[in-house]
Amino acid sequence: MPLADKIRPDTLDDVVGQTHLLGANKPLRRIIESGKIPNMIFYGPSGVGKTTVARIIAESANMRLHKLNGTTASTADIKNIVAELDTFLGSNGILLYLDEIQYLNKKQQQSLLEYIEDGSITLIASTTENPYFYIYNAILSRSTVFEFKTIEPQELEKAVRRGFSALSKENGIEYEVSDEAIRYICNGVGGDVRKCLNTVELCALSSNNGKVDIEIAKELTQRSNMRYDRDGDQHYDLLSALQKSIRGSDENAALHYAARLIDAGDIISLSRRLLVIASEDIGLAYPQAVPIVKACVDSAMQLGLPEARIPLGEAVILLATSPKSNSAYLAINAALSDVQNGVVGDFPRQLQNKHCDGEDAEVKGQHYLYPHDYPNHYVKQQYLPDNLKDKVYYHFGDNKLENNAREYWEKIKNQK
Predict the structure, then answer these.
(1) Residues with Cβ < 8 Å from 326, sequence gap 6 or more?
(2) 101 vs 90, 119, 218, 302, CA distance in Å?
(3) How many alpha carbons lie under 13 Å from residue 257 in its C-beta half-sphere?
């Protein structure tokens, strides 16, 4: 049995982390202590205590616990659980812990509705993906969502010390573990208790007469970025954090999130997002950012890792430290909104490529005015359709470049 299972907590006070849910007078703790357990969804990364808390709830409520995994569960498995409802086994109620519920299809999730609605089955479902995207709405509306968070390194220290203590008793060896080694393990496992205890077990097996130093910890600590999934929430959270850090002009935070993507080998997603940011967030405040970032991205793709990190880092810093404007982004969105809502009109006569005057035409001829024939290459004429002729989509941004452009055109267009 893995160490994580051997020392799995039996009480809420022994659970590592999740104090925002399980601390004194916190919501989930109050619910558990009331003895009236509602349907719940536990959302968060793996190895942070979702299964442990579900087991404690079942035992404290004196309910029969069934555990299914969404990756392997079938409708027949659910029917077998339902069959226990009128038996002695289910007399105190059944608590179904459904791990990775997002892998159940809609029909399988619907098969639970009748029983969780009338209270004959209490559902605790867990998912590592955003439940509002992956769980059937009818299940979601009948459940309370609790978010479990990654465990902070200082909280993980409790689990590490408890793990070595348990192994000392089991193996009859007094392990001498340096504080430096403990800190390294706690910082290197990405807030995952299970991964943390697996590392403790490996360090104990590899110890030199019970001594565990920093070198052993470095060799055996599993890399935290192994949790990264290009199709999961972690992927989109990283890209979101990157863009928001650049938009907020925090080059250090932006470099951190870019480094996590680079370390995961995902330079394609990083490159695509940087190209988007150049136009969406820097835009007309510094339009040269677009070709510069494109050049950096092209260089990264030609170089490949590890050298690709250099031009990509350059692009991240350039974007984060550039002036910002989303005026072009807002303008094209406003124009698209009109088009998509059917707010369009006929082309002004003077803009048409070809025209044919009928006998009923009051004014014959196209009458297009060629701007290059006029001073400053500008002449006033209507370009938008009649029903949109006064529409303004673009508003100049508050930055040096767009201010200069606004002043220039105000001077030209206001000349008599």
Answers:
(1) 280, 281, 283, 397
(2) 22, 19, 35, 41
(3) 25
CA distance from start to end of the chain: 88
Please tell me the predicted confidence (pLDDT) of residue 254: 95
Spatial separation of the C-alpha atoms in residues 236 and 241, rounded to whole Å? 8
Gap between the Cα atoms of 78 and 53, Å rounded: 22
Q: Are 144 and 41 in contact (CB under 8 A)?
A: yes
Measured distance CA(122)–CA(124) in Å, rounded: 7
Strand pairing partners for 145? Answer: 41
Rounded Cα distance, 123 and 95, in Å = 6
Q: How many CB atoms lie within 10 A of CB 187?
A: 15
Q: Which of 348, 264, 308, 178 has the alpha carbon at shortest distance from 186?
A: 178
Task: State the DSSP string of 243-308.
Answer: HHHHHTT-HHHHHHHHHHHHHTT-HHHHHHHHHHHIIIIIGGGSTTHHHHHHHHHHHHHHH-TTTT
**CA nearest to 196, candidates 147, 161, 229:** 161
Q: What pLDDT sits at residue 249?
A: 94
Say whether pTM exceeds 0.85.
Answer: no
Q: Are 98 and 71 in contact (CB under 8 A)?
A: no
Length of the chain equals 416
- Residue 393 to residues 30, 40, 277, 330: CA-CA distances in angstroms? 52, 46, 21, 8
**Per-residue model confidence (pLDDT) at position 359:** 61
Amino acid at 242: L
Identify whether the C-beta of residue 148 lies closer than 8 Å to the C-beta of residue 44.
yes
Cβ-proximal residues to 304 (8 Å cutoff; 6+ apart), any chain: none
Degrees to nearest 5, angle at CA 216 with 211 and 218: 145
Cα–Cα distance, 331 to 335 (Å, whole number):
6
User: Would you tell me how many other CB atoms lie within 10 Å of the CB of residue 109?
Assistant: 22
| Residues of the chain scoring pLDDT < 50 | 224-226
Residue with tokens 């480094």: 259
In this prediction, residue 10 carries a pLDDT of 84
One-letter amino acid for residue 324 of the chain: K
What pLDDT is recorded for position 356? 61
